[in-house]
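Fold in tokens:
===
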Amino acid sequence: MGPALSIVDSEPAERADAARNRKLLLDAAVELVRRDGADALTMDAVAKQAGVGKGTVFRRFGNRAGLMYALLDESDRNLQAAYMFGPPPLGPGAPPLERLVAYGRARLTLTEIEGDVLRAATISSPDRYAGPPYNLTKTHVSILLRQAGIPGEIALIADALLAPLDASLVLHQTRQLGFTLAQVGDNWEALVRRVVPAAGEDHRAVE
């Protein structure tokens, strides 16, 4: 009886340890990207930054590509939690138009912080429009467009609104063309407000 109880009780502790280790490694990776850019994101560098052996990083993520996608997945999960359960205007309770604007600005903030990783993953994933991260985002934007009463092909309109938030384009606009992230955000908001009429503000989100 004693050993059986010990094994059962150890499982939550093991899962908690795994979650803590994963967060430790991802936090180290994010710090490297912020400080030195995505080119500095190597398995060796993450291990050193986190204070663990390189084998630990490989066991957790497999390779550098796995680490990069884990970073993107973490960002997407955090943003998804914010727009599904967080306070307005990003979360429920604000008019669809204002939630759309808040979503775009939140997405741009992620691009600024982890833009190199986003761009690298975008380039290496030709089928990204068919994958869960993009489709979750598109579903959220589509829901808000429907709540705002926008006519037309909602799927195409959602794609058109999401295209200016593409990491590669935003980095080109800020690094090569010299626009600030605030200017990009203001331009995106102006676009959204042209597509979504002011009357949409009378609708309330029901996510």
In short: The radius of gyration is 20 Å.
